[in-house]
Design a protein that fits this description.
- The complex is a heterotrimer of chains A (about 280), B (about 260) and C (about 260).
- By secondary structure, chain A is an all-alpha fold.
- Helix content of chain A is about 75%, strand content about 0%.
- The chains are: A mainly alpha (about 280), B alpha/beta (about 260), C mainly alpha (about 260).
- Chains in contact: A-B, A-C, B-C.
């Protein structure tokens, strides 16, 4: 790119190469990462072995064994995969339902100030209420089945989806609309060619926030009341005082949350190839 | 000049903006101006002289409070594809490739894909961006971005080009180079051009005629210069330097 | 320069609509309960909630504490956890942003812990600390520390490299650049974290109290659920919402005051 650029307009992409030394090796990022992980695991192991929290912390290997065991035997009626799928299913249903409604509503609010004037006050009313505060009333309304769990997730994911879609459109540089108008486009063209693509990154940021909120919500719902799912594993571990089960559940839910957020990132990179990647963050 | 065909006529145009909710700021007052067919008109003025607003009114993006604009005898009432606008801050669509940016105007007017592609390619080649069709704007340097902006305006085949300080964000060398390119493109694709700038050299290098704006709000026209210099011009020619001195003496603008 | 002042009018409809929408909402809510469209056992009307609220100000029944006591418990827990997360999270994030060794050593651990929803820690904290204050403070701390670290880290990382090079040419030491340049330029981001962390703390406080508590606003909601009293549930939800909004507003004002000189 820098080489065949025209008219002395070059882009500097050079990088210093420093000579190899022990100091450089010791302060190398990846070396330090390895040290860090090893230290963390051995500290965890030490604390668990010495029973500093009495019998309330399991050693890392015990947790691993517990997880492996769960893949082989049925626990509360299903294998490990069944529990993962139970939670994932709830998250996906709630997340998809909420984003299908919230994103268009957010876009609509940003595009039409009358819609905004009607919806915004109601939205501001519900916004400061933590989604988890809805758990009790959801159980009262929908019982302890799937509906109440999905309901909580919808509540938790709706707000960030809507807010980001709304802000994504409002923060578009208004001069970009002028470009369309000058080129002879209509209001519809402005929305299709400017509003939607420009708000894409913000919408994706909202989806990421929603997703992490969805996992918190599903966990809360499952901790309150459930017969399967990763939150159920944690809850059962709590009730029967099995730290291995609790820690195993925590690791699983972290991995699941991380995995789903990775999928959203990949989708974003696919759908928004124009996005500049920011280094070092 | 009177023997030339009138292209755009601007009569007694004034515009007042409302700032911070309730303050009236007069931006331009009583501008009367004629632009002729295939002429390269430069509107020269320092920052805060209302020249960009005037251009936006020509483009139809702003409505004048008083006065009228007529283009080819028809009054201007809103933006339209008969006028191509190039923005100071490029205003490229970050989510479209160079080609899609250039094609956009044609696409909005429903030109079939094949013809669109051909026209776009012609103007991409004209501005010297061959080989960069599939790049996204963030992969281009400032000068290249503005080339895309110019190609995008040209591709829509407007009958008049409006350029709003197009090289304001470029470094001095790139700016000079882009001025030469602009002169070259203009000679290849003869169009009426209105070019707004705050740079005297740029104005002298490009213009057939220079309209000098007063350096304070509300903007008014101070005087007009007709340039009879042969093209291609040199920044160090005798006539060039003489005119440069004359205009410099006549402005509060410090270079 | 003095310019002439004019009055800009907003369309009347735009002024009325927000109020109309709120009134309609509360009216509908009242009506569906009043006329039994939604049974009283599932939802309490706004007027019922208001009555319960006035009653709960002095009456400790049926959940064991007055409104004030619940609110006080929650605020205490929230602020302790919040302060702890600021005190530890911000310096940690700042250091991670500037010192390679700090980043190398802490970032992987942070990244490992980050995706775990804070409420997943509840069982462990119950094992470790019981259901008292310490356990909830721990959970809130975990919740609040994530935005603190991330924002401080990003804030330092976003320091203009030109300014850093400038400081180097003036002979500033690494420590001087960190304290004199990176920290001030990271401040707006850090203040952004204050808001964010508080919102996280507040959400997770409610969750922690729902699951393991004997008083607090979240506990009030749980009790409402157990007793089948929708008025108490809704009252708890509203209180949590309003207190969250008030705290957010206060932080916002403080931020504006403190940042007046940095952000224009």
């Amino acid at each position: 790119m820098a080489g065949n650029s025209i008219a002395n307009e070059t882009v500097n992409q050079s990088r210093n190469r420093e000579p190899f030394s022990l100091r450089r090796f010791l302060t190398n990022k990846y070396f330090l990462y390895c040290v860090s992980i090893c230290l963390f695991l051995s500290l965890w192991d030490y604390v668990a072995r010495e029973k500093i929290f009495r019998d309330s912390l399991a050693r890392p290997l015990e947790v691993w064994d517990q997880l492996v065991l769960l893949t082989q035997i049925k626990f509360a009626g299903t294998h490990l995969w069944g529990h993962i799928w139970a939670s994932l299913q709830r998250v996906l249903i709630g997340f998809v339902l909420a984003s299908i409604v919230a994103i268009p509503l957010g876009l609509f609010m940003a595009l039409n100030r009358y819609v905004n004037a009607i919806v915004k006050p109601l939205f501001d009313l519900f916004k400061p209420m933590p989604p988890i505060a809805w758990v009790s009333i959801a159980i009262l309304w929908f019982g302890i089945g799937e509906t109440s769990k999905v309901f909580i997730i919808i509540i938790g994911t709706f707000v960030p989806c809507l807010l980001n879609a709304y802000n994504g459109v409002r923060l578009v540089d208004p001069d970009l609309y002028d470009v369309i108008r000058v080129l002879g486009g209509s209001r519809r063209d402005e929305i299709i060619h400017v509003c939607f693509p420009a708000s894409f990154p913000a919408i994706f940021a909202g989806l990421q926030i929603s997703l992490s909120s969805a996992w918190t919500c599903v966990l809360a719902a499952e901790l309150m009341n459930s017969r399967d799912g990763m939150g159920f594993l944690i809850k059962r571990g709590m009730d029967t005082h099995q730290p291995t089960l609790v820690l195993g559940g925590m690791i699983l839910i972290a991995a699941a949350a991380y995995g789903t957020s990775l999928i959203v990132s990949l989708a974003e990179r696919r759908l928004c190839p124009w996005q500049r990647t920011i280094d070092n963050l | 000049m009177s023997d030339m065909k009138l292209k755009l006529r601007c009569e007694n145009v004034s515009k007042t903006f409302i700032q911070k909710g309730n303050q009236e700021v007069p931006v331009i007052r009583d501008i009367t101006l004629s632009v002729y067919e295939n002429e390269f008109l430069v509107i020269l003025g320092p920052g805060q002289s209302g020249k960009s607003t005037l251009l936006k009114i020509f483009a139809g993006l702003e409505q004048p409070d008083t006065g009228t604009i007529t283009l080819d005898g028809k009054p201007v009432e809103g933006p339209g594809p008969d006028r191509g606008l190039v923005f100071q801050s490029y205003m490229l669509f970050a989510w479209k490739t160079v080609r899609d940016n250039v094609e956009l105007g044609l696409k909005l007017r429903g030109v079939p894909a094949e013809e669109r592609r051909k026209t776009a390619q012609h103007y991409i080649d004209l501005v010297g961006l061959t080989g960069f069709e599939r790049h996204y704007p963030h992969q281009l340097s400032g000068g290249m971005k503005q080339r895309v902006g110019i190609a995008r305006a040209y591709a829509n085949t407007p009958s008049i080009m409006l350029l709003d300080e197009p090289f304001g964000q470029l470094d001095a060398q790139t700016r000079m180079f882009m001025q030469k390119e602009t002169a070259r493109i203009w000679e290849q694709e003869r169009r009426t051009v209105i070019f707004v700038t705050n740079n005297i050299d740029e104005a002298l290098f490009l213009g057939d005629r220079i309209v000098l704006m007063e350096g304070k709000l509300p903007g008014t026209i101070k005087t007009e210069y007709v340039l009879d210099l042969p093209r291609p011009r040199e920044h160090t020619g005798m006539d060039f330097l003489r005119l440069r001195k004359e205009i410099t003496d006549n402005t509060e603008l410090v270079l | 320069m003095a310019y002439k002042e004019v009055v800009v009018k907003k369309p009347l409809l735009l002024i009325i609509l927000p109020y109309a929408s709120l009134i309609l909402f509360f009216g509908l809510w009242q009506a569906v309960v009043q006329f039994g469209i939604i049974p009283n056992t599932l939802l309490a009307s706004p007027s019922q909630v208001l009555t319960t609220f006035i009653d709960k100000l002095t009456n400790a029944n049926p959940d064991g504490a007055t409104m004030g006591a619940h609110a006080w418990t929650s605020i205490q827990e929230a602020f302790l956890g919040y302060l702890l997360s600021l005190v530890i999270g911000i310096p940690l994030g700042l250091a991670m942003g500037w010192f390679n060794i700090a980043e190398g050593l802490f970032r992987p651990i942070f990244e490992l812990i980050r995706p775990i929803p804070p409420i997943a820690w509840i069982p462990l904290t119950v094992f470790w600390f019981g259901i008292g204050l310490a356990g909830k403070v721990f959970i809130i701390w975990i919740a609040g520390i994530v935005p603190c670290v991330i924002n401080s880290y990003v804030g330092v990382r976003m320091t203009s490299p030109v300014l850093i090079q400038m400081a180097r040419t003036y002979g500033a030491s690494s420590w001087q650049i960190f304290t004199q340049l990176c920290i001030p330029s990271a401040l707006p981001m850090v203040f952004g974290a204050l808001q964010l962390a508080l919102a996280y703390c507040w959400t997770n406080l409610v969750a922690a109290e729902l699951l393991a508590a004997d008083s607090g606003l979240g506990f009030l909601i749980t009790m409402g659920g157990r007793l089948g009293r929708p008025d108490i549930i809704v009252l708890g939800m509203i209180c949590v919402g309003i207190s969250g909004a008030i705290i957010g507003f206060v932080i916002d004002q403080v931020e504006k005051k403190l940042l007046a000189g940095i952000r224009r």
